[in-house]
Protein backbone atom coordinates (compact mmCIF):
# COMPACT_ATOMS: atom_id res chain seq x y z
CA UNK A 1 0.00 0.00 0.00
CA UNK A 2 2.76 2.42 0.92
CA UNK A 3 4.51 1.71 -2.37
CA UNK A 4 1.32 2.57 -4.27
CA UNK A 5 0.97 5.83 -2.38
CA UNK A 6 4.56 6.78 -3.17
CA UNK A 7 4.24 5.71 -6.81
CA UNK A 8 1.05 7.74 -7.23
CA UNK A 9 2.73 10.97 -6.19
CA UNK A 10 1.59 13.77 -3.92
CA UNK A 11 -1.97 13.71 -5.31
CA UNK A 12 -2.50 10.41 -3.51
CA UNK A 13 -2.58 12.37 -0.24
CA UNK A 14 -5.86 14.26 -0.94
CA UNK A 15 -7.32 11.12 -2.49
CA UNK A 16 -6.44 9.18 0.67
CA UNK A 17 -8.01 11.90 2.83
CA UNK A 18 -11.15 11.69 0.70
CA UNK A 19 -11.31 7.92 1.21
CA UNK A 20 -10.99 8.32 5.00
CA UNK A 21 -13.77 10.91 4.94
CA UNK A 22 -16.06 8.60 2.97
CA UNK A 23 -15.53 5.76 5.44
CA UNK A 24 -16.09 8.01 8.46
CA UNK A 25 -19.25 9.59 7.02
CA UNK A 26 -20.66 6.23 5.92
CA UNK A 27 -20.24 4.81 9.42
CA UNK A 28 -21.65 7.92 11.14
CA UNK A 29 -24.66 8.27 8.83
CA UNK A 30 -25.33 4.55 8.88
CA UNK A 31 -25.61 4.74 12.67
CA UNK A 32 -27.55 8.03 12.74
CA UNK A 33 -30.06 7.00 10.06
CA UNK A 34 -31.15 3.71 11.59
CA UNK A 35 -34.94 3.53 11.10
CA UNK A 36 -35.51 2.45 14.72
CA UNK A 37 -33.65 5.54 15.92
CA UNK A 38 -35.26 8.05 13.56
CA UNK A 39 -38.79 6.59 13.65
CA UNK A 40 -39.25 4.53 16.85
CA UNK A 41 -41.96 1.99 15.95
CA UNK A 42 -44.11 2.46 19.07
CA UNK A 43 -43.61 6.17 19.64
CA UNK A 44 -46.83 7.36 17.98
CA UNK A 45 -48.91 4.90 19.98
CA UNK A 46 -47.23 5.93 23.23
CA UNK A 47 -47.85 9.60 22.49
CA UNK A 48 -51.49 8.99 21.61
CA UNK A 49 -52.02 6.89 24.75
CA UNK A 50 -50.61 9.69 26.89
CA UNK A 51 -52.75 12.29 25.12
CA UNK A 52 -55.92 10.24 25.63
CA UNK A 53 -55.14 9.93 29.33
CA UNK A 54 -54.78 13.73 29.54
CA UNK A 55 -51.33 13.24 31.00
CA UNK A 56 -49.40 15.28 28.45
CA UNK A 57 -47.53 18.20 29.99
CA UNK A 58 -44.79 20.61 28.99
CA UNK A 59 -42.23 18.22 30.46
CA UNK A 60 -43.59 15.41 28.30
CA UNK A 61 -43.28 17.60 25.21
CA UNK A 62 -39.68 18.51 26.01
CA UNK A 63 -38.81 14.88 26.63
CA UNK A 64 -40.53 13.85 23.40
CA UNK A 65 -38.67 16.56 21.49
CA UNK A 66 -35.32 15.17 22.63
CA UNK A 67 -36.20 11.52 22.12
CA UNK A 68 -35.86 11.16 18.33
CA UNK A 69 -36.36 13.01 15.02
CA UNK A 70 -39.97 11.78 14.88
CA UNK A 71 -40.44 12.86 18.48
CA UNK A 72 -39.17 16.33 17.58
CA UNK A 73 -41.84 16.61 14.86
CA UNK A 74 -44.66 15.26 17.01
CA UNK A 75 -43.67 17.54 19.88
CA UNK A 76 -43.86 20.58 17.59
CA UNK A 77 -47.39 19.60 16.60
CA UNK A 78 -48.56 18.91 20.15
CA UNK A 79 -47.13 22.19 21.39
CA UNK A 80 -49.45 24.01 18.96
CA UNK A 81 -52.42 21.63 19.01
CA UNK A 82 -54.62 24.14 20.82
CA UNK A 83 -54.21 26.70 18.04
CA UNK A 84 -56.09 24.68 15.45
CA UNK A 85 -55.35 22.18 12.74
CA UNK A 86 -53.69 24.60 10.30
CA UNK A 87 -51.28 26.03 12.85
CA UNK A 88 -50.47 22.53 14.07
CA UNK A 89 -49.67 21.35 10.53
CA UNK A 90 -47.55 24.42 9.84
CA UNK A 91 -45.51 23.81 12.99
CA UNK A 92 -45.07 20.17 11.99
CA UNK A 93 -43.91 21.16 8.51
CA UNK A 94 -41.40 23.60 9.97
CA UNK A 95 -40.08 21.00 12.41
CA UNK A 96 -39.90 18.41 9.63
CA UNK A 97 -37.75 20.78 7.56
CA UNK A 98 -35.30 21.10 10.44
CA UNK A 99 -35.23 17.34 10.96
CA UNK A 100 -34.60 16.58 7.28
CA UNK A 101 -31.81 19.15 7.23
CA UNK A 102 -30.14 17.37 10.17
CA UNK A 103 -30.63 13.95 8.60
CA UNK A 104 -28.91 15.17 5.42
CA UNK A 105 -25.81 16.22 7.37
CA UNK A 106 -22.55 15.36 5.55
CA UNK A 107 -24.35 14.11 2.42
CA UNK A 108 -23.11 17.13 0.51
CA UNK A 109 -19.58 16.13 1.47
CA UNK A 110 -20.13 12.66 0.00
CA UNK A 111 -21.50 14.22 -3.19
CA UNK A 112 -18.51 16.57 -3.43
CA UNK A 113 -16.02 13.74 -2.91
CA UNK A 114 -17.77 11.64 -5.57
CA UNK A 115 -17.28 14.56 -7.97
CA UNK A 116 -13.73 15.64 -7.16
CA UNK A 117 -12.03 12.28 -6.54
CA UNK A 118 -12.04 11.31 -10.26
CA UNK A 119 -10.79 14.81 -11.10
CA UNK A 120 -7.91 14.40 -8.67
CA UNK A 121 -7.12 11.09 -10.32
CA UNK A 122 -7.28 12.70 -13.74
CA UNK A 123 -4.97 15.47 -12.58
CA UNK A 124 -2.51 12.82 -11.44
CA UNK A 125 -2.80 11.22 -14.86
CA UNK A 126 -1.95 14.53 -16.51
CA UNK A 127 1.08 15.04 -14.25
CA UNK A 128 2.22 11.49 -14.93
CA UNK A 129 1.98 11.93 -18.69
CA UNK A 130 3.85 15.24 -18.45
CA UNK A 131 6.60 13.40 -16.61
CA UNK A 132 6.69 10.76 -19.35
CA UNK A 133 6.94 13.31 -22.16
CA UNK A 134 9.61 15.29 -20.31
CA UNK A 135 11.62 12.10 -19.89
CA UNK A 136 11.26 11.29 -23.57
CA UNK A 137 12.35 14.82 -24.53
CA UNK A 138 15.41 14.78 -22.25
CA UNK A 139 16.54 11.16 -22.38
CA UNK A 140 14.75 9.60 -25.31
CA UNK A 141 12.88 6.35 -25.02
CA UNK A 142 15.81 4.36 -23.71
CA UNK A 143 15.27 4.97 -19.99
CA UNK A 144 12.42 2.56 -19.25
CA UNK A 145 12.53 3.23 -15.51
CA UNK A 146 11.69 6.91 -15.85
CA UNK A 147 8.97 6.18 -18.38
CA UNK A 148 7.47 3.49 -16.19
CA UNK A 149 7.43 5.86 -13.19
CA UNK A 150 5.41 8.45 -15.06
CA UNK A 151 2.99 5.90 -16.48
CA UNK A 152 2.61 4.28 -13.07
CA UNK A 153 1.74 7.63 -11.50
CA UNK A 154 -0.81 8.27 -14.24
CA UNK A 155 -2.57 4.91 -13.81
CA UNK A 156 -2.44 4.67 -10.01
CA UNK A 157 -4.00 8.08 -9.34
CA UNK A 158 -6.78 7.45 -11.86
CA UNK A 159 -7.61 4.07 -10.31
CA UNK A 160 -7.42 5.49 -6.77
CA UNK A 161 -9.72 8.39 -7.64
CA UNK A 162 -12.32 6.04 -9.08
CA UNK A 163 -12.03 3.66 -6.13
CA UNK A 164 -12.93 6.55 -3.82
CA UNK A 165 -15.58 8.17 -6.02
CA UNK A 166 -17.64 5.05 -6.69
CA UNK A 167 -18.28 4.11 -3.02
CA UNK A 168 -18.91 7.79 -2.22
CA UNK A 169 -21.59 7.97 -4.91
CA UNK A 170 -23.16 4.68 -3.79
CA UNK A 171 -23.29 5.85 -0.16
CA UNK A 172 -24.73 9.21 -1.16
CA UNK A 173 -27.54 7.63 -3.19
CA UNK A 174 -28.24 5.03 -0.52
CA UNK A 175 -28.55 7.57 2.29
CA UNK A 176 -30.65 9.88 0.12
CA UNK A 177 -33.15 7.07 -0.54
CA UNK A 178 -33.21 6.15 3.15
CA UNK A 179 -33.91 9.75 4.17
CA UNK A 180 -36.70 9.97 1.60
CA UNK A 181 -38.24 6.79 3.01
CA UNK A 182 -37.93 7.99 6.60
CA UNK A 183 -39.41 11.38 5.68
CA UNK A 184 -42.47 9.71 4.16
CA UNK A 185 -42.95 7.59 7.29
CA UNK A 186 -42.59 10.58 9.62
CA UNK A 187 -45.01 12.63 7.53
CA UNK A 188 -47.58 9.83 7.61
CA UNK A 189 -47.37 9.45 11.38
CA UNK A 190 -47.52 13.20 11.98
CA UNK A 191 -50.62 13.52 9.77
CA UNK A 192 -52.27 10.65 11.62
CA UNK A 193 -51.65 12.41 14.93
CA UNK A 194 -53.11 15.66 13.59
CA UNK A 195 -56.21 13.87 12.28
CA UNK A 196 -56.65 11.95 15.52
CA UNK A 197 -56.39 15.07 17.68
CA UNK A 198 -59.00 16.82 15.57
CA UNK A 199 -61.38 13.87 15.49
CA UNK A 200 -61.07 13.02 11.80
CA UNK A 201 -59.70 9.50 12.35
CA UNK A 202 -58.21 7.39 15.09
CA UNK A 203 -54.71 6.02 15.40
CA UNK A 204 -54.71 2.64 13.67
CA UNK A 205 -52.09 -0.02 13.18
CA UNK A 206 -49.66 -1.87 15.45
CA UNK A 207 -48.14 1.31 16.84
CA UNK A 208 -51.54 2.41 18.19
CA UNK A 209 -51.03 0.08 21.16
CA UNK A 210 -48.00 2.08 22.25
CA UNK A 211 -46.69 -0.69 24.44
Q: Which structural class best describes the helix and strand composition?
A: mainly alpha
What is the averaged pLDDT score? Answer: 84
Helical percentage: over 70%
As a whole number of angstroms, the C-alpha radius of gyration is: 27 Å
Q: Could you say which overall geometry the principal axes of the C-alpha atoms support? A: rod-shaped
Strand fraction: under 5%
User: What is the total number of structural domains?
Assistant: 1
Low-confidence stretches: none
Number of strands: 0
Distance between the termini: 53 Å
- Provide the succession of SSEs: HHHHHHHHH
Count of helical segments?
9
Describe the sheet with the most strands.
none
Report on the architecture of this protein.
This protein is an all-alpha fold. It has one domain (2-199). 80% of the residues lie in helices and 0% in strands. It is built from nine helices and no strands. α1 (2-8) packs across α9, α2 packs antiparallel against α8 (107-139) and α2 packs parallel to α9 (144-197). The radius of gyration is 27 Å and the shape is rod-shaped. The protein starts with a helix and ends in a 14-residue tail after the last helix.
Amino acid sequence: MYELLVAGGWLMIPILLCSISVIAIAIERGWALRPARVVPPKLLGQVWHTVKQNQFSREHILELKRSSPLGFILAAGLANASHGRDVMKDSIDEAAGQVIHKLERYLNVLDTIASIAPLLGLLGTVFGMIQVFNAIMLQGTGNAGVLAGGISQALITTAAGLMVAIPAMICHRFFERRIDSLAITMEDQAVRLVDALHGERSIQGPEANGR
